[in-house]
């Protein structure tokens, strides 16, 4: 019942939302099908249905590149591989090895491994992370159309495998900086969903107390969230310099998009990073479009992994969380061993437009979006893999989905009901560790106070 | 015989050849015949000895000789300048020395003060802070092996090595971003721009990445960084290398903007800037680098800091308030000395900090003197002087003004190259004197 209401309200939002002219019935159905497929067990888009006794798995039609190799019972002596599930599904495969797509390399003898091992726990964790990011972004979309979120809102759905895969390969003590499509990374770096949504709605419970907005969210070892295209790349190289200076064996992951890849300051950062052998992983999230301009129309060379020239590079399938994880692991090892920076290109796709004010269909076709959704959706890819290797049950995924949707709903509730920051906060946090100072208001008689 | 004592001493000077002989000549041979030199003011002496009508002020003990081997000259012009500076120091208290000699008081207890150039003061400040906190490091073009484009970081690379003193390629946007990123990750960089003209290439990183971040993150992410380098006009470097950025950076909240004048300012303010947890833009002046100033004993201590945000009254006065910063403090002090002969006592305020502006100091002074003249090297439109005038209008001091405030600024043109044009593009002492008299309606 509750789900039906959600579906209807979502449909109504879309009907009354800003982009009513641009959306067709098919798009509406696509979004509705999202909800439907997640709750009903008999949806045609899923490859697997019920838990079955172990038998040779069929080749999945949804993941042509990843041939399923084996689903053997636990042979390794890794502790904790056998998971005790609350229900009596004790005969799940605890671990499986998958073939992943080989990465193209530039100035490297060899790339990351072509096989990735996934345990049941890891699989469920990645699924949870990606699904949370997906739901959070869709919720942000909904809130934006209700005009509860305003200004900029750049959504990350479709690219979840990048955030999940990178986070799986680095430590919490490593550093990460990205551009404005940052909600996914804000979550993977440890910020609660409700704080992210409250920041989007501009409330005092937000990460930056409502003062930053969509593009300026920060966390320990996460440096945002940067609004100026490309500016985050020299910043990331500087963070890597600090890691090298302090000798703490940490790396900095610096993300940018295909649009930013042509910025001059990137090449300045590449030069200095290579010169000083900074432990920096430069990652280009190539989602094929820089705002409304396709990569062919913007770049003389679309081999973004080669653009580092003297810096080694990898081209990675960004829709496969395991591929991203293995590549990032490889890159982190490369940096930590003192070999200097490395460039990674993640080939990925965003379902939404550049931002909420871009319908996303004037420069690409709906068929293209639909094709990626059906063939290469990162969440579905992972889910199919796990189901076909009997690593989890459909009900489990359903349970996780329901729990996540509840969590996101509660967070949205918090984000809409939390009060806005008080006006006394207007001038605070201009300087750090400074005595209180007076700030000029809009007219000479308005003297406002600023506290550090 | 002579129409004025000035002409006597001037003719004496013109007749001499070497340096040392005529230094001593007037004091020890023509006492009985010469008109008393005490009738001459400091400025007259300066004009005599340096054969120029431009005067630069300095305060030092003439009995301590300047160690000229420590001063690196770049051009004959600067060499003459430094020589003239040393003579000025000698002559500044020449009046006192002469009268002392006349009274035959050779035993004077000397203050434990030392003469230090602005360059050396900056060098000392950085050296002490690098030693004090190992998170502090310096990066910029030519700061390490070249000893600094203007030799400000001389000796630091030899002492601290590649890790703490980093030479960068000529990529301002890149290395400024790197410096800001390093500050975000816990270090305390000093980012040097060869001149602030080049900071325009990196201004996005200074404003959007450094200045605004603490506010945007509501206090989660601080950026403890210092951007320093020479600002404003130099000598003959023409339009693209002569812009003053005090107004540009002073416009932005989240930044502190500091503009020192003398050696004590330079050292104390740079130490404060490095210890500050916020982004600080430190505007030096190339023409002041080689000028020596007396530094008190207190200012030689390793913990000597000057608070950011407080102006200093360099000269007390009663008739007009002159508000200025950086190199033009010297100009104002010299103008004040000339005006004092005519009975106009000027109060000269050295701003020291552009942002946050010490409005209280200015207002207190204006309420005492009832007249305001601001002096700066930058362009007039939307400049430092414009802001001071607006603030004074909005505050209690407006009611104490007996005349509209006057701004003395650089001419509103890109800086030309030819010397005569360049000299007339910047405020001269005669311009300041003229403006004061107009403001006072005398």
UniProtKB/TrEMBL annotation, chain A:
Class of enzymatic activity (EC top level): oxidoreductase
Domain of life: Eukaryota
Key words of the record: Carbohydrate metabolism, Glucose metabolism, Magnesium, Metal-binding, Mitochondrion, Oxidoreductase, Phosphoprotein, Pyruvate, Thiamine pyrophosphate, Transit peptide
GO biological process: glucose metabolic process; pyruvate decarboxylation to acetyl-CoA
Domain (Dehydrogenase E1 component): residue spans on this chain: 130-423
Primary site of residence: mitochondrion
Function: The pyruvate dehydrogenase complex catalyzes the overall conversion of pyruvate to acetyl-CoA and CO(2), and thereby links the glycolytic pathway to the tricarboxylic cycle.
Stored PANTHER family: PYRUVATE DEHYDROGENASE E1 COMPONENT SUBUNIT ALPHA (PTHR11516:SF60), PYRUVATE DEHYDROGENASE E1 COMPONENT, ALPHA SUBUNIT BACTERIAL AND ORGANELLAR (PTHR11516)
Protein name: Pyruvate dehydrogenase E1 component subunit alpha
Upper lineage: Eukaryota, Metazoa, Chordata, Craniata, Vertebrata
TrEMBL record, chain B:
EC number(s) recorded for this UniProt protein: 1.2.4.1
Cell compartment(s), UniProt: Mitochondrion
Catalysis performed (reactions): N(6)-[(R)-lipoyl]-L-lysyl-[protein] + pyruvate + H(+) = N(6)-[(R)-S(8)-acetyldihydrolipoyl]-L-lysyl-[protein] + CO2
Superkingdom to which the source organism belongs: Eukaryota
Domain Transketolase-like pyrimidine-binding: 116-291
Sorted UniProt keywords: Carbohydrate metabolism, Glucose metabolism, Metal-binding, Mitochondrion, Oxidoreductase, Potassium, Pyruvate, Signal, Thiamine pyrophosphate, Transit peptide
Signal peptide, first to last residue: 1-40
GO cellular component: mitochondrion; pyruvate dehydrogenase complex
A Pfam family recorded for this sequence: Transket_pyr
GO biological process, one term: glucose metabolic process
InterPro entries, A to Z: PDHB_mito-type, THDP-binding, Transketo_C/PFOR_II, Transketolase-like_Pyr-bd, Transketolase_C
Molecular function GO labels: metal ion binding; pyruvate dehydrogenase (acetyl-transferring) activity
Names of the cofactor(s): thiamine diphosphate
Gene3D superfamilies for the chain: 3.40.50.920, 3.40.50.970
Subunit structure: Heterotetramer of two PDHA1 and two PDHB subunits. The heterotetramer interacts with DLAT, and is part of the multimeric pyruvate dehydrogenase complex that contains multiple copies of pyruvate dehydrogenase (E1), dihydrolipoamide acetyltransferase (DLAT, E2) and lipoamide dehydrogenase (DLD, E3). These subunits are bound to an inner core composed of about 48 DLAT and 12 PDHX molecules. Interacts with DLAT.
Function: The pyruvate dehydrogenase complex catalyzes the overall conversion of pyruvate to acetyl-CoA and CO2.
Name of this chain's protein: Pyruvate dehydrogenase E1 component subunit beta
Gene that encodes it: PDHB
